[in-house]
User: Which sequence fits this backbone?
């Protein structure tokens, strides 16, 4: 475990071995990780420490994460995946075609469920006479947006007239 207190929000990073005592690989699911985070936060609270295990979705952070290798190659300007994505975005911007991203439906459903939960929280706070806190919750709820995919962001940027960045071409010489 590593405790980070050098940032505005102190937090702990925890590394868990994914192997059992005999060396076999454990099958750890996302639900297991979520449950472990919640239990860890509960134990910290039982010891008098402020802790929570709020999911990123509830905090309004929905995004389409990319693999680390693709991210690092893109930072160097060497990502074939990024070049191809930019090419598709250029084509879509020129033709006006829409591109349905796999999994986007689930992201939208989650965002809508989160919106509904915050709406119900606001209503409950109002029913308890906590109108100022309810107003804060409503402002937060209104700030939540369904995220754009990388493809949608690229098409939007092109349509806004930003300079087109051509994919880098490598030339091999002897």
Assistant:
């Amino acid at each position: 475990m590593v405790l980070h207190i050098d940032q505005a929000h102190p937090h702990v990073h925890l590394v868990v071995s994914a192997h059992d005592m005999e060396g076999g690989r454990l099958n750890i699911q996302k639900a297991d990780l979520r449950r472990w985070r919640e239990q860890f936060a509960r134990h910290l609270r039982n010891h008098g420490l402020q802790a929570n295990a709020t999911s990123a979705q509830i905090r309004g952070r929905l995004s389409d994460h990319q693999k680390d290798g693709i991210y690092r190659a893109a930072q160097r300007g060497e990502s074939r995946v990024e070049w191809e994505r930019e090419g598709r975005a250029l084509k879509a911007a020129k033709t006006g075609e829409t591109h349905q991203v796999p999994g986007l439906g689930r992201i939208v459903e989650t965002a809508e469920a989160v919106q509904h939960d915050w709406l119900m929280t606001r209503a409950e706070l109002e029913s308890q006479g906590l109108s100022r806190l309810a107003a804060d919750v409503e402002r937060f709820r209104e700030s939540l947006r369904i995220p754009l995919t990388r493809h949608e962001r690229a098409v939007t940027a092109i349509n806004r007239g930003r300079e087109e960045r051509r994919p880098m071409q490598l030339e091999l010489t002897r």
